[in-house]
Amino acid sequence: MSLELSVDGERWRTHLRAVAERTPGLVPVLKGNGYGFGLHRLARRAGWLGASTVAVGLYEELPEVAPRFPGDLLVLTPWRPFHEDPADPALAKRVVHTVSRPEDLPALLERRPGARFVLELATSMRRHGMTAAELWALAPDLRRLGGRLEGVALHLPLAHGGHLAEVERLLTDVVAADLPSRTVWVSHLTDAERDRLRAAYADLELRPRTGTDLWLGDRGALRVTSTVLDVHPLRRGDPYGYRGRTAPRDGHLLVVSGGTAHGIGLEAPQGQLGLKDRARSVAKGGLDAAGLSRSPFWVDGKQRWFAEPPHMQASMLLLPQGAGVPEVGDRLDARVRYTATAFDRVVVS
Ligand SMILES: *Cc1c(COP(=O)(O)O)cnc(C)c1O
């Protein structure tokens, strides 16, 4: 019994198909912990969705994804001379590198003649990418350098619909570079923004890179649960835990699955209490006043407090008197960040 992600498979697959249908050229992004699902699972799912290309974050992620997805593999982290990209010719043919500095292109093509690549243009994110001036300067050299240009990549901030002005400026820069590819790989555009850009730049082919809105876009299909491993009655003043704390009030101590190894961390105590509120809370035996933090675990309809910082694979929670006490083996709902959680089990129905 463990920290588990259960997926309503029918509902999840319906959502994935709906996103794929309204997003022509969709490039599913699979990186990190596979958005909680695992890279291997998303790789197969992307194939099932009919994607021609997926994006991975790192070269190191290719071995897990490549055997499970038959198409092209865009690597989002820009190529650098110190990266170890795959030498295996069958795999190398499927890899599309991201080049974000002009000097990296000749270096890449010297090491991997014929390599496929996208040129990343800097956006207001300022994470990676060359300037428009650098792109224009590089454009006339592309034929001589060789390789295969697969388009321009733009990584946009999470502006929730506020991108049009920036993207229009960037696309104008792309068109002005007069490149031998009309493909633009973009992230974080809304459906409405993509439709407008498709109409305004009809000769460009947009390839939307999407992770969160695809895999995690229908939260109602997902449920995270932890298992109650132990329940101990507590009297006010009883000691517990690694740190010899004492119970601030009567209740129960719950030991539940999920700890630091799963990415369960301490959150700051919620609702920063003013002095007066704190005094009132202390008078009531409030747990926030006792310096405790809220856990991501829900018991009897409420988010409960950590009794002490989470352990490696389990957490201790305080359940005040009066709350319904779960039994060993019961499952508790947990609210976690999917991209930062390592689940013990993922069950797709
Ligand atoms: C992670 C990432 C994406 C996908 O982002 P989501 O917010 O998960 O959709 C797209 N492009 C790049 C370059 C990324 O690093």
Automatic annotation (TrEMBL):
<dbReference type="InterPro" id="IPR029066">
    <property type="entry name" value="PLP-binding_barrel"/>
</dbReference>
<dbReference type="InterPro" id="IPR009006">
    <property type="entry name" value="Ala_racemase/Decarboxylase_C"/>
</dbReference>
<protein>
    <submittedName>
        <fullName>Alanine racemase</fullName>
    </submittedName>
</protein>
<dbReference type="Pfam" id="PF01168">
    <property type="entry name" value="Ala_racemase_N"/>
</dbReference>
<dbReference type="GO" id="GO:0003824">
    <property type="term" value="F:catalytic activity"/>
</dbReference>
<feature type="domain" description="Alanine racemase N-terminal">
    <location>
        <begin position="8"/>
        <end position="161"/>
    </location>
</feature>
<dbReference type="InterPro" id="IPR001608">
    <property type="entry name" value="Ala_racemase_N"/>
</dbReference>
